[in-house]
Design brief:
This protein is an alpha/beta fold. The chain contains 9 helices and 11 strands.
Length: 277
Amino acid sequence: MTSGSILEAAPAPTLPAAIIDDPRHPAVRRVADVLRSRAARPRTILIDDEENMAQAARAGVELIALYVSASRLEDISPACIPASAPELHALSREVLRGLFTGEKHSRVFALARAPRPASLRDLITAGGDLLVLDGVRIPGNIGAILRSARAFGAAGIVLLDSGLTSIYDRRLIRASRGLLFTLPVLTATRSELTEFLQDEKIPLAAMSADADDSLDAISQVPGRLAILLGSERTGPSDTLAKLAACRYAVPMLPGVESLNVSVAAGIVLHERRRLTR
């Protein structure tokens, strides 16, 4: 075995007696069932790549089974194996291709028990601002925003009309680098969000390229804010835009119509941090 091998990382898992090359094997069928699931609240989820698996384990997510390509069995990073290591399966290249037909596949992934989904109630006592993403549907953008939210101390993210069947969408886990498991991220309807903000007396601040107020002023707003960002094409819905107590624009040079929503989110959250420094 090479230095830093899976056996040195954690003695609990034992190397599989044979590489699985039968797509009907129970361990393979289990993965296929998870990939096919469209449940809003799945019981089991799939986490790709060692970094994401390690982040999930640090956040307390229970990894059930670890899957490795036969070609990677000798050089798994120790960081992805939690203290209570899960069962380990080695899969042939053909089995992996069959599982992930038409999708990006990883040579190292895990099945895990899905954590309890967050709710709006989880945001009541959490410190920091909320991010409200209205109609943002690209998992890569949501994941990048999630990473900025974690870096700049946001309390959580509320997704409206995201197109995601589940928060634990495999693409979103990848895009967030596993940080999805470290702060509340939830879906809600616009009416649910509106009622929550009114009950908790949290003002809504909308980001808009045509707003009159410069973003510089947002750092002076005391208390918590719900920061509203919409899709790059259509912006936030009229329903929520009308509820915004204030609207801000990121100052830009002429000739640029808009920023990527994930870039705008990072700028806004950084600007808000100036209030607490």
